[in-house]
């Protein structure tokens, strides 16, 4: 019995002692600093992005960091020319700008969305819009995956962009928790990309070396909560949904390695879209960009995604990793 207790106690403390667990990356309103740490697997120092978004943006300006401040100075979408790229939620916001940029660089953009519109169809062609598909609907997603394959062949890139952020601030102390909304966010943002990728794999709708990109959020970093949500917590469903999304991405990276698909998680940076309109007052100080620039940031990192970066969680603002 004593040996069993000793074994259990060692097993429970081992991950922390070995540094597997970081003490504990959203839209942010507080302060912090750069974190440099050592990964337990490679023992190589990783220079992470900075949790404090005000500081991160101020540093970029101080350093005249072109990569951060003007993505067009480094971005050239040429590598995606001629590729077939699926974008979920490509009917508005960041997704629509990604779609426009894909078309501009000569890629075939295919859109999976709930509701199409004439402007979107004029951009990508009516036949490239798979509408009526909610990413929480198993059957609709499976059917769309089969149709995409049968209609036009294999996809080279998938950009899981559809997402949802419940508007009111959730807090235990203010008694504003909404568990149904939490589950909805987890279903859309956590399970949505997994559901889409799984259906595409099963439908054999992916090209040999396809890239599976998921637009997640820095909101999914546990470690960054101590800075970005310092002493206030909140927005439970938002953060939990992205933590689930990230875990699903890491597991997919492991399982799909043998198929040659890389799975990369991208925080798209802070974009001036409907989703973040509630944060309008901090757009300037936190360096929020127009979604057409956010789209280039996402595509820049999509082009870089490879089997070397599979399973990584990357900030499209500076190209650095975000700690889990
Ligand atoms: N904007 C930012 O600063 C920021 C920061 C971090 C992460 N992100 C992530 O980036 C992605 C794009 O954000 P955004 O700012 O463009 O948001 P947005 O303007 O609110 O657009 C969200 C998109 O997701 C779609 N969507 C929502 N629920 C869906 C569902 N159940 N099934 C299918 N599609 C659904 C929406 O389609 P409908 O038109 O049908 O609603 C819309 O196309 C999201 O995943 C978001 O979480 C954004």
UniProtKB/TrEMBL annotation:
GO molecular function, a single term: oxidoreductase activity, acting on the CH-OH group of donors, NAD or NADP as acceptor
SUPFAM superfamilies in alphabetical order: NAD(P)-binding Rossmann-fold domains
Tagged with keyword Signal: yes
Keywords assigned by UniProt, alphabetized: Signal
Gene3D superfamilies attached to this UniProt entry: NAD(P)-binding Rossmann-like Domain
Signal among keywords: yes
Signal peptide: 1-19
UniProt-recorded name of the protein: Uncharacterized oxidoreductase C663
Species in which this protein is naturally found: Seminavis robusta
């Amino acid at each position: 019995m004593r040996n069993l207790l000793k074994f259990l106690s060692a097993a429970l403390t081992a991950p922390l002692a070995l540094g597997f667990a970081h003490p504990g990356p959203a839209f942010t309103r507080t302060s912090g600093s750069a974190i440099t740490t050592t990964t337990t697997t490679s023992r190589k120092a990783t220079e992470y992005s900075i949790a404090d978004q005000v500081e991160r943006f101020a540093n970029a300006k101080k350093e005249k960091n072109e990569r951060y401040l003007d993505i067009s100075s480094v971005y050239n979408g040429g590598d995606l020319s001629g590729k077939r790229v699926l974008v979920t939620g490509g009917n508005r916001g960041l997704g629509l700008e990604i779609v426009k940029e894909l078309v501009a660089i000569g890629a075939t953009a295919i859109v999976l969305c709930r509701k199409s519109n004439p402007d979107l169809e004029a951009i990508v062609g009516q036949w490239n819009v798979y509408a009526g598909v909610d990413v929480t609907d198993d059957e609709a997603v499976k059917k769309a995956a089969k149709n995409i394959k049968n209609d036009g062949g294999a996809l080279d890139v998938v950009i899981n962009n559809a997402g949802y952020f419940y508007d009111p601030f959730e807090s235990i102390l203010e008694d504003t928790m909404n568990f149904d909304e939490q589950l909805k966010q987890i279903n859309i943002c956590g399970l949505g990309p997994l559901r889409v990728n799984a259906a595409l794999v099963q439908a054999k709708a992916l090209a040999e070396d396809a890239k599976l990109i998921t637009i997640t959020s820095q909101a999914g970093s546990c470690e960054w909560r101590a800075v970005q949500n310092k002493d206030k917590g909140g927005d439970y469903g938002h953060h939990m949904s992205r933590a689930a999304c990230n875990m699903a991405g890491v597991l997919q990276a492991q399982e799909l390695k043998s198929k040659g698909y890389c799975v990369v998680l991208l925080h798209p940076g802070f974009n001036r879209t409907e989703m973040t309109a509630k944060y309008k007052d901090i757009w300037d100080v936190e360096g929020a960009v127009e979604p057409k620039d956010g789209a280039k940031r996402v595509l820049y990192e999509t082009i870089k995604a490879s089997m070397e970066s599979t399973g990584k969680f990357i900030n499209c603002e500076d190209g650095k990793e975000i700690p889990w």
